[in-house]
Write a structure and sequence with these properties.
2 domains, alpha+beta, about 180 residues, 5 helices, CBS-domain, about 25% helix, three-stranded mixed sheet, disordered N terminus
Length: about 180
């Protein structure tokens, strides 16, 4: 049995009765509508075991450490992507975001830089099969927009972005996700 608790009519500063409802931290279901929280009969939110594999995007372009800033910028514009992995032997060593590129583009000397000069080293990487809630929680905690998905030997397989996370949330809320 599903219990729906509506907190829309609560006044500012008023808290829900936490003696009756427990909402585990890190679950995506607490986002279900403005002020609506879902709980199971035993007062814990149901947890879905969903892998990020279903929502991981393919890589539309990678660069190497020696790739020029101009080439990185052109790749991002051409492919309409916001994150570019920097790889060595198909293993991620860094990542460059559109924010990094926009910041550097404003400096004259920025055009002389290479990927290794501007990348964020040791990007957040997860293995294929990692749970969606674990990845979403860690991305939120770190305040980052993507996770690089690697296979069991550390080679780049895909990218999971905040947009992919929102697509997963939509499917979960609409009941279309497969466990």
């Amino acid at each position: 049995m599903m219990i729906i608790m509506d907190f829309n009519d609560m006044r500012i500063g008023q808290k829900p009765d936490t003696n009756h409802v427990f909402f585990p931290f890190g679950s995506l279901l607490f986002l279900a509508g403005a002020g609506t929280m879902l709980a199971t009969e035993d007062t814990e939110m149901s947890q879905m075991n969903i892998s990020i594999d279903e929502y991981t995007s393919p890589i539309n372009g990678v660069v190497r450490g020696e790739t020029s800033f101009t080439q990185i910028y052109e790749l991002m514009v051409q492919e309409r992507i916001r994150h570019v992995p920097v790889v060595k032997d198909n293993r991620p060593v860094g990542i460059i975001s559109d924010r990094d590129v926009k910041l550097i583009k404003g400096f004259e000397k920025g055009l002389d830089l290479k990927a290794s000069d501007i990348m964020v080293e040791d990007p957040y990487c997860v293995q294929i099969g990692t749970s969606l809630d674990e990845v979403a929680f860690e991305m939120s905690r770190r305040k980052i927009g993507s996770a690089l998905v690697v296979n069991d030997i550390g080679e780049l397989e895909g990218i999971f972005t905040s947009t992919d996370g929102l697509n997963a949330l939509i499917e979960i809320l609409r009941g279309q996700a497969e466990e």
